[in-house]
Amino acid sequence: MSNVELRQITKRFKDVTALDEISFTIRDGEFFVLLGPTGAGKTTTLRVIAGLAKQDAGEVLFDDMNVNTFAPADRDVAFVFQQYSLYPTKTVYDNLAFPLRSPLRRLPKDQIDKRVREVAEKLRITHLIDRKTAHLSGGEMQRVSIGRALVRNPRIFLMDEPLSNLDAKLREALRVELQHLQKTEGTTTLFVTHDQTEALTMADHIAVLDEGHIVQIGTPYDIYDQPATTFVAQMVGIPRINLLPAQRENGQFYICEGTVKLPIPAGRGIPPNFVLGVRPEDVRPVSDGTHQGAVTLTEPLGVETVVHIRSGQQTLLSIVPGITDLKIGDPVHYNIVQERLHFFNLAGKRV
Question: Relative to the CA of 168, which of 67, 113, 137, 320 has its CA 20 to 30 Å away?
Answer without folding.
Answer: 320
